[in-house]
Amino acid sequence: MEPEALVSDYLGRLERAAQPLPADRRGELIAEVHEHIESALAEAGSRDEVTARNVLERLGAPEEIVAAETGSSGEPAAPPPVVERPPRWGPAEVLAILLLTVGAVFLPVVGPLIGLILVWMSGEWTTREKWVATLIVVVLLALPVLLLLGVSVGSGSNGSGA
Amino acid sequence: MVPGETRNPLTELRRGVLEYCVLAVVRDDESYAFDIVRRLASAGELVTSEGTIYPLLSRLRRDRLVTTTWRESDAGPPRRYYRITDDGRQALDGFALDWARFRRAVDAILAVAS
Question: Which of A70, A137, B41, B100 lies 20 to 30 Å (CA to CA) from residue A20?
Fold first, then answer.
């Protein structure tokens, strides 16, 4: 392998390892290490493959340099794990679901309304989900009323026309 | 942690003392990074991966234990010269006392143990 290729290969590894660093510090670190390599090659008075390998070996692994920057113990810095919290339903959430579903049959109107209150008090659903639940309940409650109104208005207008 | 297991105790020791060794190198005269690395390396034992000095120098700058000045160089691009600050000097003096006590304590224990 050509010495130039060894050096650019090393700097490429350093750049990839340094991705977690802030952009300005990343550029600075790469420039510093690059300059170190140039100084070391100049000092050695030779740019052959063996010299380049020795210079890079004395520098240490790029990942190790970045680890010293981030204060971790030598392993490449891992991004903080993204914790996807599973939904944890307590008794209130279960009761809310029951009231919204079978509650509509056993406790018409009152059941789903209490269910909605429980839904809004719970921290386990997003605001968007709560609005969707509310909308469904309101529409389902309003539907028979609207239908009845429609029928009575329709029959009323029919009656007046007759 | 069991001594002798996977981790080299010297690695841990180096991590703790290296920044003070850098401060000691620039205590009397300003110096540029490559020269600092060379002087630390020539002392032996202190540096295993020369590249890790650069993050260390960056931290010393951030903590204002050193200041830097860019100067033209005879060969190649301008160089950043490192100089110790008053805060750095104070930190170094404090460490020198701590280290002397620490070394005496370890030496005494090792002498008794052997």
Answer: B41
CATH of the domain at B16: 1.10.10.10
pLDDT digit string, tens, across residues A58-111: 999 999 999 999 876 444 444 555 656 656 778 888 888 788 888 888 788 888
Q: Looking at the domain assignment, is residue B4 inside a domain? A: no
Say what the ipTM of the complex is. 0.84
How many domains does chain B contain in total?
1
Domain boundaries, position B17: 9-113
Is residue B3 situated within a structural domain? no
DSSP structure class, residue B104: H
Is the CB of A59 inside 8 Å of chain B's CB atoms? yes
Contact B75 A33 (CB under 8 A): no
**Strand order across the beta sheet in which B31-32 lies:** B31-32, B79-84, B66-71
Min distance A82 CA to chain B CA atoms (Å): 27
Is residue B34 within 8 Å of residue A33, measured between CB atoms? Answer: no
